[in-house]
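## retry 2 of 3
previous attempt timed out at serialization; input unchanged, resubmitting
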Amino acid sequence: MSNARDAAVDLDVRFFRPNVTERSEALAYRNSVEVPPDTGSDDPWTDEDIVSDRPYRIEIEDRSARSSRHYHYRPDCSDEGPYDIGVLVRFNPDGGVAFSQTTCSSDAPFL
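## retry succeeded, writing output
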């Protein structure tokens, strides 16, 4: 997560498995985090190895702004080789939120 705002962002983060009817059964990951403002480093705030690589609906809720956003993560890599997967959430100074994900193939869009 990357925070270009002047203040820290206080979040609830949830990962849900798709195609599961009961929300409580679909929940794969939940955490509350505070993302500090960027300090000029190129390294975003990260949390690693939280879920296996499969499709998820990722929901973030900014508790201080009482707003939420979501992103549909779909793995791009089809081979069995090692690769770094990830979703980057960027909090823009104007209050907007942008999601992007890493890809493996050259023809896959970088969202």
